[in-house]
Amino acid sequence: MTMWTFENTAQGHSQRNEALRVALTVTICMVLGKLLNLDSPVYLALYPTIIMTKNKDYSWLGLIRTLLPTLLAASTALVVTEVFSQHPFVVWTISLFFFDFMRRRATTPAKKGKMLMPTFNWILIVVFAQHSTMDMPMRIHEILVSMLITMVVAKTMVALFPVEQGSKPPVFKEQPVTFESRAISLALIGLGLAFLMIVDIISATFCMVPVIAAATQTTHKSFIDVVDRRFQTQVGGCAVAVVFTLLMAGHQSTFGYYTIVLGLFAFMITASMAKAKGSARDVHADALLATMLPIQLYMTSSNLGLESTFLRAWELTVTLFVLWALCHFVRKPTGEEPALVR
Question: In what helix (H) or strand (E) does residue 222 lie, and over which residues does it extend?
Fold first, then answer.
């Protein structure tokens, strides 16, 4: 059985529905991002992928609960950057309070996952307000539009390819976040934001995603596992995006061809994800996001964006290597859990 075929059973039917549901949602949203000529179409790759691979509640209320914190974080970041536009150090300091607020609330694995999008979108707004000439209030408008489109498309696909009610997700006991864990998260995320605010490398902003994911880990092993997995998925996703780009060479302005090839690539990844179990599902989900982001970010009707995709892969490699080196550098020679990530 290949990744393109599913068993003729109830389980196979459920897997096929999941693969089609996720692939079609991501493809339709990304295509709409191109057709609507948004200044930031990347949100119509980011939000649908996160919603369809991480979310469990597809009711209107569930979707709003998932996306609203991100909208509030981006809007608050815009207010902060506008009020203190002449004082970047104040913006950075307030950002630290926000990061610490988010980290203190992340007392379970699910809550750690939920802090990723608000934190990352805060950083996006701060960095782009600092270095770009974009109309930032319009960017918030596009975030809202992208969320609404994502919710409508996701609800439509869930209606066409229903989600099978499985067993209830495991309930994790809340663990109070230690001062040490807060300090580590604040140091990694805060220093990353400071670097991006000082050095004009807007393209490196998306490298903060693996930094945030790693910064919330509490043990040496989980930290290393996140870095290793992100290297495979993030850099590997860029490689898959390059293959897609080469297939599109000379035809990127042909709407039908672009849509079909994009849908096939999305289905190829989601079919593997639907069949995977446990942590392997997360690997495929991360790979889907890592593949779709550079396609949506860099490819236009007149530019393939290959150079930008290669640059993104290089920036991610450097970032992940720094995280890997940092974790090994602070490890105690006795082999005990290091104080940094105990």
Answer: helix 220-230
Domain enclosing residue 69, as ranges: 10-166+176-341
Q: What is the pTM of this model?
A: 0.87
CA–CA dist 103, 216 (Å, integer): 7
Neighbouring CB atoms inside 10 A of 24's CB total 21
Q: How many domains does the chain have?
A: 1
Give the closest residue to 26 by CA, choosing from 263, 323, 190, 222.
263
Average pLDDT, the chain: 86
CB-based contact 122:95 (threshold 8 Å): yes
SS3 303: coil
Q: Are 14 and 164 in contact (CB under 8 A)?
A: yes
CA nearest 31: which of 305, 296, 317? 296
pLDDT, tens only, 253-280: 888 899 999 999 999 999 999 888 877 8
Average pLDDT rounded to a whole number, residues 162-168 = 70
**Count of other CB atoms within 10 angstroms of residue 225:** 14
